[in-house]
C-alpha cells in the first residue's frame, strides 16, 4: 500500500489546486460545496455546464486509457485530483455515473462501436447517465430483478418492460444502463443482460420520490415497451450479472477518496460549530469528535489498500468492507452534528421546509446504511465472499 506521494505527484496536486481556484469563480462560484449527497437536486443546469468546463480542462476520464480518450493517470494522481476537488468545494458531479461507472465498464466490456458511440459524450460533458439496477422487490438482492426485455425481430430492437427505483437524477439523464431479464423463466444471476437505454422516448416515464429531506433527486423509472437498439447490449445475452458486478467494482474506485474529503469538509463544519457554540467543552462531544476524526483516517487507509490492487472491476477482499464502514461512519456523523447543534437541531430557519446544511446531513444519512446495499447484506457479503464462511440459509 502506498501512503505517501512523490515530488511529481505533489507538483500535480498544485496544478489541480490552481486550476480549480481559477475556474471555481464567476458563474461557478455559487456551485462550491453544492450538489453533494442530500443536495443533488440543486443547480442541475449549472452543474452540467461545469462538466463541460471540466472537459475543456481535460479533467474527465483521468484514469481511462489514452486509447479511449482518457489521460491514463496513475492511481496516485487520480487520488490527488479527487482530494483536491473536494477540498476546493467542487460541486457534486452530474457526470459521475458516466465517468466513474459506465465509462470504465464500456472500456472493459464494450465493443469498439459502443466505445466510439458513448465515450466521447461522457468525456465532453454533454451526455449524462443514470443507473437502472434496484427495483421495488430487488434492492440489496439485485439478482431478484424482474424488469424484462425481449428482442423484437421486426423492429430490430430490444423492448424493455418493468420498473426501477432509487434512480439518482434520472430526470436529468440522457441514458440509463439497465439490468434486465432477457431469458424467460430464468432466476437469480442467470438470464440477465446489460442494456443501454435512451431516456428521451415515449416508453420511459420518470416519477420523483420525495424524501425526508423534502428533495427529490431519486426517482422511479417505468419502462413500457421502451426500445433500444440491438447494438446497445454490452456483452452477450446472459452476461448481465458479470458486467453488473464489475461495474460495482469500478464504483469502489478512486472517487472513494473524494467522497472521504467531502466527509472531511462536513466534519470540519461540525468541529467549527462545536467550538463556536461551546459544545466542544463537553468531554463526551470531544471524544466523539476525536472518534470521527480517527474513523475517517481508517477509511482513508483502507481505501488506499483497496486501490493497491488491479483496477479492472474485480473486488479485493478489503473492498467488501468499504460500504459498511463509510455508511456507518457517516450516519454517526449525522447524529453527532445534531448533538452539537443542540436545541437548534429542532428548529427550521423558515418555511415550508428550509433545512440547514447539518439538518439535511442528518436526515440524508439515515439512508446511508440502506441504499447501495443494506448493512445486513454487506455483512453477508463480507462473511461469505471475503471470509469464505458458510452461506446464510436461503428461504425457498
Automatic annotation (TrEMBL):
Cofactor or coenzyme needed: FAD
Domain Acyl-CoA oxidase/dehydrogenase middle: 130-225
Cellular component terms per the entry's GO annotation: plasma membrane
InterPro entries, per the entry: Acyl-CoA_Oxase/DH_mid-dom, Acyl-CoA_Oxase/DH_mid-dom_sf, AcylCo_DH-like_C, AcylCo_DH/oxidase_C, AcylCoA_DH/ox_N, AcylCoA_DH/ox_N_sf, AcylCoA_DH/oxidase_NM_dom_sf, Mycobact_Acyl-CoA_DH
Name of the protein: Acyl-CoA dehydrogenase
Matches recorded under SUPFAM superfamilies: Acyl-CoA dehydrogenase C-terminal domain-like, Acyl-CoA dehydrogenase NM domain-like
Segments forming domain Acyl-CoA dehydrogenase/oxidase N-terminal: 7-125
Family, as annotated: Belongs to the acyl-CoA dehydrogenase family.
GO molecular function, one term: oxidoreductase activity, acting on the CH-CH group of donors
Domain annotation Acyl-CoA dehydrogenase/oxidase C-terminal: ranges: 238-386
UniProt keyword terms in alphabetical order: FAD, Flavoprotein, Oxidoreductase
